[in-house]
Amino acid sequence: MLPGLRSTSTIEQEQTALRTTLRVSGVVDGDLAREPFRVGTPELTVDWSGVRRITSRGVAAVIDAGRLPGPEVAITWTGVSVALVLQLGMVANFAGRARIASFFAPYWCAACHADRVVALETERIAGPRAPAAACPACGGALHFEELESDFFSWLEPQRPQGP
Ligand SMILES: [Zn+2]
Question: What CATH number does domain 9-106+116-124 carry, 3.30.750.24, 3.20.20.140, 2.30.30.30, 3.10.129.10?
Fold first, then answer.
């Protein structure tokens, strides 16, 4: 592959005694670095807000990386970008045992004729319904752009897994 066509992700890492924070951005593909996920802190926060796109090999890489922290590590995902939320609904176990704290949802402003991405906190979402949101530019009501039952399907209670 030509170097210029190569799409890659970058991971910024921050660490305190309690928590490792990984900020992933770019295009997540099979080259996603797994090693940063092998953490020695009790908590791991993965911030996915900078991810624009994910390939099918990227999906496998994320699942792989999610298995690296030891069972004692509490994993939280924040700022899960729209591209990744779509995978949450489609790919069983995409997030592994991570708790999804916050994510982005795609809306449309008819007045501005523009896409608007809205940050949402999982604990404030009652069910598979897009909350009302206002356009940051014109203040008008935004329209949700995906099928709600699909986009929020991962919020449904998980069935207990058999042995
Ligand atoms: Zn607007």
Answer: 3.30.750.24
Say what the pTM is.
Answer: 0.89
Residues whose CB is less than 8 angstroms from the CB of residue 113 and which lie 6 or more positions away in sequence, other chains included = none
For ligand 1, the distance from its centroid to the CA atom of residue 16, given in whole angstroms, is: 40
Per-residue model confidence as pLDDT tens digits over 47-85: 999 999 999 999 999 999 999 999 999 999 999 999 999
Residue 114 neighbours by CB under 8 Å, 6+ apart: 108, 137
Task: Collect the ranges in the chain with pLDDT lower than 70.
Answer: 1-7, 156-163
Distance 133 CA to ligand 1 centre (A): 11
User: Residue 133: beta bridge partners?
Assistant: none
Instruction: Find the 111 Cα to ligand 1 centroid distance in Å.
Output: 5
